[in-house]
Inverse folding.
């Protein structure tokens, strides 16, 4: 049944006012689906990921609903969310690798985590070891400290731990951004393997790198300034995007298989608006080459073809 | 213009400097004016160490680096830095948040041009901002937090240009930038190149190297494994490590699933030499010890 997010609004409370980081976000992720979440830094990707599992102190659930497998996910209620964390929704946060406690052996860390869920390490040790074998991590890593693992090994370890209880939804936030290309490929493919084996049912794969998302995601959702700009099958986003922002973003990406001797790519002039006091109407308006009077009104997300959503008056 | 000849860098590591680490070994290539050479490799391959040696920030252990024929170790620092400058990964850390961003220009004036009159200096700043396509009204008098990463990075390049530099070391200068502004910084390098600037473009991102450079040097564990024209190296890689890197790069034109995996052997570069496989295309011919994945 998967995840359904409806008109979700999550704001940060700051001294200068509310930062409208997620401002009416609607989408769904189906069973077995990997949704790639892309967009420039500051568009709200991390905020969305965190909102679905654990809000930090300054975040406030201002509106909208989240449903997981048909049941409401009480995202604004830290205590009630506890029941879902790790077992139903799990996250590999940005910088997970450096967040591992350096003074605790990895096996002990897993035991602590399971215990905190009322589970016994002993009962899951067999499965844990099977999964380590699968990602080609030697079982000895359980007796090591995080520092003793390479970047790619740590990342695979975090993936195994966060999916050990076969959660329905896994959120992976920039999990390969600090890795080298060959390690990045291995880690991204491991994630696909986890989905294929049913260790997780659906995945939200967050990255600023559209080329990377394209390699593993079934669907790509592009966000801009706290809102969904476009969402469609991965090959549609890459080959037939309809939102001006997606088009410009895709056409600004250099590729290794291409000669650029006498061809230049162009960036997108300007920068995204502040979310402290975001402009009314289309938030992409001041950078959009197609902007017209109508864009002073907010464009609704329209399903232009089955499963292809675009929020633009010109799409 | 800038030439590295059999350069090595050995760091002393460990508590009392008792052990050594060969970060760079037998690296040699040349960059002419009006040419961008990309130095590509994964983290730890020695790229930044090469950049830092070129900038004289760390000394070579063996070999030599010459600028217009003179060993840079013998050149007076100040004169060298008027011609050769570096820009690095993190533009944010180069600015002090309590001062306005354009203070980086004033520091250049105090250091190198104390006697230039104010109006003349302002004109010079405008000119170099124009070179990096920044609008003076949008960036002068602003604090760092009021500017974007792309603007801050271009300000640093403008600062280097104030010195009439001939050569720029650009070490991962776009890795903190979003895709939408990154390409502008790359296009800027291409512009500067067409006006005669030589650039050492250090990156782990093959698609960026492919976009901006004429020639490419690929490093692995401190060694140059392959170098030649960018077109050649990227379309006809002759070294297995280059092929492996290329097959791992995510692309919009092909999927990993449709390209065969390239196995990588464990390589011993020990005494292996670079061999010219076609004019200007050099490949290291080492022994393969063992094949993995
Ligand atoms: N703790 C916070 N307090 C206030 N604003 C925040 C905080 N964290 C993020 N933001 C703001 O929320 C917006 C979305 O940020 P984020 O979700 O981290 O974006 P992304 O992950 O896409 O880069 C940005 O404008 C950012 O400045
Ligand atoms: N100041 C230093 N002291 C000791 N080792 C260093 C120092 N700087 C770099 N190294 C080591 O040299 C190797 C190459 O590093 P670096 O040149 O930064 O590579 P890259 O830029 O390709 O990531 C690495 O193993 C790194 O740990
Ligand atoms: S709604 Fe208007 S401003 Fe927004 S993307 Fe579409 S055309 Fe551009
Ligand atoms: Mg983020
Ligand atoms: Mg480096």
């Amino acid at each position: 049944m998967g995840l359904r997010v409806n008109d979700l609004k999550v704001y940060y409370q700051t001294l200068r006012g509310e930062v409208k980081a997620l401002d009416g976000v609607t989408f769904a992720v189906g069973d077995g689906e990997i949704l790639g979440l892309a967009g420039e830094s500051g568009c709200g990707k991390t905020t969305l990921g965190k909102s679905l599992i654990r809000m930090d102190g300054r975040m406030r659930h201002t509106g909208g609903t989240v449903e997981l497998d048909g049941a409401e996910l009480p995202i604004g209620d830290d205590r009630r969310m506890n029941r879902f964390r790790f077992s139903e929704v799990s996250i590999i946060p940005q910088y997970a690798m450096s967040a591992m406690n350096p003074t605790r052996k990895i096996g002990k860390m897993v035991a602590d985590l399971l215990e905190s869920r009322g589970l016994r390490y002993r009962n899951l040790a067999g499965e844990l070891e099977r999964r380590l074998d699968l990602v080609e991590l030697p079982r000895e890593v359980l007796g090591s400290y995080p520092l003793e693992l390479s970047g790619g090994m740590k990342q695979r370890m975090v993936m195994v731990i966060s999916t050990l209880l076969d959660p329905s939804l896994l959120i992976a936030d920039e999990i390969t951004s600090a890795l080298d290309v060959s390690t990045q490929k291995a880690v991204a493919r491991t994630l696909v393997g986890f989905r294929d084996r049913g260790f997780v049912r659906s995945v939200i794969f967050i990255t600023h790198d559209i080329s990377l998302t394209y390699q593993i995601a079934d669907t790509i959702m592009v966000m801009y300034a706290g809102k969904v700009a476009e969402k469609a099958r991965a090959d549609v986003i890459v080959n037939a995007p309809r939102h001006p922002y997606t088009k410009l973003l895709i056409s600004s990406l250099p590729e290794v298989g291409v000669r650029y001797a006498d061809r230049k790519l162009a960036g997108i002039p300007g920068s995204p608006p502040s979310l402290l006091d975001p402009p009314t109407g289309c938030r992409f308006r001041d950078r959009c080459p197609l902007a017209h009077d109508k864009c002073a009104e907010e464009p609704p997300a329209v399903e232009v073809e089955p499963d292809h959503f675009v929020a633009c008056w010109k799409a | 213009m800038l030439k590295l000849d059999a350069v090595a860098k050995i760091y002393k590591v460990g508590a009392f400097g008792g052990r050594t680490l060969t970060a760079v070994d037998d690296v040699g290539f040349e960059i002419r004016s009006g040419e961008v050479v990309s130095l590509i490799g994964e983290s730890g391959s020695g790229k930044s160490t090469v950049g830092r040696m070129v900038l004289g920030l760390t000394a070579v252990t063996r070999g030599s680096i010459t600028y217009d024929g003179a060993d840079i170790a013998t050149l007076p620092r100040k004169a060298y830095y008027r011609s050769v400058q570096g820009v690095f990964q993190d533009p944010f850390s180069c600015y002090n948040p309590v001062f306005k961003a354009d203070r980086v220009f004033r520091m250049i004036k105090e250091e190198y041009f104390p006697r230039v009159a104010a109006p003349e200096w302002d004109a010079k700043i405008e000119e170099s901002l124009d070179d990096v396509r920044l609008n003076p009204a949008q960036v002068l008098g602003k604090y760092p937090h009021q500017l974007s990463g792309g603007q801050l990075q271009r300000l640093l390049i403008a600062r280097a240009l104030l010195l009439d530099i001939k050569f720029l070391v650009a070490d991962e200068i776009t890795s903190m930038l979003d895709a939408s502004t990154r390409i502008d910084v790359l296009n800027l390098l291409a512009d500067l190149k067409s006006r005669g600037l030589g650039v050492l473009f250090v990156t782990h991102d093959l698609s960026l190297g492919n976009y901006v450079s004429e020639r490419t040097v690929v490093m692995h564990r401190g060694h140059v494994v392959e170098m030649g024209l960018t077109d050649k190296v990227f379309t006809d890689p002759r070294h297995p490590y280059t092929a492996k890197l290329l097959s791992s790069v995510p692309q919009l034109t092909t999927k990993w699933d449709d390209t065969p995996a390239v196995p990588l052997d464990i390589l011993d570069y020990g005494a292996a030499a670079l061999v010219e496989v076609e004019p200007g295309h050099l490949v290291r011919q080492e022994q393969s010890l063992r094949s993995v994945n």
Summary: The pocket of magnesium ion (ligand 5) is lined by residues B 47-48 (CB under 6 Å). Chain A touches chain B at residues 40-41, 180-182, 184-185, 189, 208-212, 214-215, 238, 248-250, 252-261, 264-268, 271 (CB under 8 Å). The radius of gyration of chain A is 20 Å.
